[in-house]
Specification:
The protein is of the alpha+beta class. The chain has 2 domains: 2-23 and 157-327, no CATH class; 28-137, no CATH class. 53% of the residues lie in helices and 17% in strands. The protein has 9 helices and 11 strands. It has helices at 2-14, 139-156, 158-170, 174-196, 204-225, 232-235, 237-259, 266-298, 304-327; strands spanning 28-34, 39-49, 52-53, 57-59, 64-65, 73-74, 78-87, 95-99, 108-113, 120-124, 130-132. The strands form 2 sheets. Strands 1, 2, 3, 5, 6, 7, 9 and 10 form an 8-stranded mixed beta sheet that branches. A hairpin with a 3-residue loop joins β6 (73-74) and β7. The longest helix is centred in the C-terminal third of the chain and has 33 residues, at 266-298. The model is unreliable at 1-24 (pLDDT under 50).
């Protein structure tokens, strides 16, 4: 357990400050909307990497002029460019490429919005940086794309992972832990949906700061829980997780706002994204449980000292994030 704690916290502490933001590498987003029989409006968002646009570029089919857009402009969260293209032969059945994506560790969502056909969502990865646009797309394809997006998003969000890691240490009973994580998912699903439909509108920086504060709280509960007193966070952790899940859902909403949702398939995309997040959380917990089981079989039992060290490590990292995010208001 001590080895697991040390490795995990070392990676977090060594992670560059620019990556401390949970969503520093959100997927790129390319929207191609038809506005006339031959004209298309293109909106291209590149992820921000340490204050510079990621070294990728959208390349439209050869029959589209111009195939590449102008230099992007920062909107403080990503790098944006927009332009109009002429595609006399249409776009369906033509290749679209994300140049440079094969050397990155990120995804790009491409949304096609033709005038007389259903919208199409494509997910580009480093392994599939060139794709042929289909004539039509099913809801299942949208569901699959956003399911994978939610799964990858939680595994790349270091603050969300640290929250789950703290919860894993705090709650020892397996089914109680699964229930707490599920309550967390249900809660963030509610606020994510409300924010997506415009019912809630909370600025991103305060939300990110409170997310860091929620991890500090769990770290304190781990230490206090070792004193042997009754703690609501240990006896009924689902209550605590549901409350914090409402806050974390606003963080997910900010990420989805940058990524974009398919207008005709919002319910399917939201459901898929939330299921992907839940699958990512449970996979992370499963990996931690496996490492702990291996440690117990090959070494000594987990000591109280290791738990306290883990709690202070988690608290230190999350306090660093909290101070950094407050200073960025």
């Amino acid at each position: 357990m001590r080895l697991l704690v040390c490795v995990f916290l070392f990676v977090l502490c060594a992670w560059p400050a620019g990556k401390a933001n949970a969503h520093a590498l959100d997927p790129g987003y390319l929207e191609i909307r038809q506005i006339s029989p031959v004209n298309w409006s293109v909106h291209w968002r590149k992820p921000d990497v340490n204050g510079q646009p990621m070294a990728i570029d959208a390349v439209l089919p050869e029959n589209c002029t111009p195939a590449r857009g102008p230099s992007p402009i920062s909107d403080s969260r990503a790098w944006v460019s927009s332009w109009i293209v002429e595609c006399h032969a249409g776009i369906a059945g033509q290749p679209i490429a994300i140049d440079g994506l094969d050397s990155q560790k990120n995804d790009v969502l491409v949304r096609l919005l033709p005038l007389n056909a259903e919208p199409t969502t494509l997910r580009f990865t480093p392994e599939t940086s060139v794709q042929i646009t289909p004539a039509e797309q099913t809801t299942w394809a949208v569901f699959a794309a956003y399911l994978l997006l939610g799964f990858e998003h939680i595994l790349e969000g270091w603050d969300h992972l640290l929250f789950v890691f703290a919860l894993f240490i705090l709650v020892r009973e397996p089914w109680k832990l699964v229930g707490a994580v599920t309550a967390f998912t249900l809660a963030h699903s509610i606020t994510l949906a409300l924010a997506t439909f415009g019912v809630l509108n909370v600025p991103g920086p305060p939300v990110e700061a409170v997310i860091a504060l929620s991890i500090v709280f769990l770290a304190m509960e781990i230490v206090k829980g070792e004193e042997g007193r009754f703690r609501l966070s240990k006896q009924k952790p689902w209550i605590i997780c549901f409350g914090f899940g409402l806050l974390h859902g606003l963080g997910f909403a900010g990420a989805l706002a940058d990524i974009g949702l398919p207008a005709n398939d919002i319910p399917a995309a939201l459901l898929a994204f939330n299921l992907g997040v839940e699958a990512g959380q449970l996979s992370f917990i499963g990996a931690l449980a496996l490492l702990v089981a291996i440690w117990r079989l090959t070494a000594h039992p987990i000591s109280r000292r290791a738990t306290v060290i883990a709690a202070y490590g988690i608290g230190s990292v999350s306090m660093y994030w909290l101070i950094e995010r407050i200073s960025g208001f």
